[in-house]
Amino acid sequence: MSDKKLTPDEVAAQAQAAAVEAMMAKAFSKRASTAPASDVALTDAPGLDTQRCGLIAIVGKPNVGKSTLLNALVGQKVSITSRKAQTTRHRITGMRTVGVTQFVFVDTPGFQTRHGNALNRSLNRTVVGTVNDVDLIVFVVEAGQFNQADEKVLNLLPPGTPAILLANKFDLIHRRGDIAPWLQMMQTKRDFAEFVPMSANSVKDVERVFGICEKYLPQQPWMYEADALTDRSDRFMAAEMIREKLFRLTGDELPYTSTVIIDKYEQEGNLRKIAATIVVERDGHKGMIIGDKGEKLKRMGTEARHELEALTGNKVFLEIWVKVRSGWADDEARVKTFGYE
Ligand code: GDP
Ligand code: MG
Fold this sequence. Notes:
The chain is α/β, with parallel strands linked by helices. The protein contains 10 helices and 9 strands.
């Protein structure tokens, strides 16, 4: 044993290393403290005085897996996902009630760093507006990674709200030991309430998230029915499903500034008649969507229709048009008319 005196810096470093060790141990212990406190199927709704309910913002730069996580948490597709960044434009809420607790999730557009146009300015306002009124922030990053774009999102978060560091895509990390120095670095970025290494693709991992988040939500009556999953309208969900197919089938060719408008949404008995327009910026983009002999647009329509039929439980008649409206992403007034706050 050496009796050499440690400098204050060394003492601090040791304390931090110990804190990181403790976080790692807790995160990887087979769910010691993370089982939902109320993982019971209740036959009757619990009394108002025992109910818990709160808002949870899922934030992070584009492509870290926020929509995948939200959909898995809610148990239904309420947010579109894509390999292409920047596909989420709206503040989408999904909710899930487990035992006595109702978790109300808010998905945010990734903080936009690449373009400075009117559309992106509007998106950034949505991010800031979303995180200021929540009970808990789930800050999503890719495990082992942290760059300027992550930092920008982190800097937008209010300091007083508890934040969980969710290290997603943990399936891509091959050695757990590699993550300790990264976690140590992350600890200097913010005083995170918890560290959650996981994969949004894993059902088991996703279920653990409820137990972890529950204690940060206040005791108060639920805001929604016990079986509610989203408060978005059918009309909005229709536009989202079409937008997802649009991004999936056009790959990286199509600029993310294209959008979908629902012109008509009518219900006649068990049939829903929907007419939508895909608005693109340039004539050249039209061809990318329509494809050879209309093949691509047809496939988009078929896939969107199947998803909408699954979502609504009704037969769907879907018509999709493609229109060119050049320059709309740069025009503040027009952005508003398309519904972005
Ligand atoms: P968002 O932009 O943050 O909403 O990200 P998305 O949810 O759209 O996901 C971006 C991409 O990451 C998609 O291709 C997902 O399938 C993928 N992804 C999400 N979670 C995981 C994960 O845990 N592991 C792996 N390997 N891929 C994931
Ligand atoms: Mg998303």
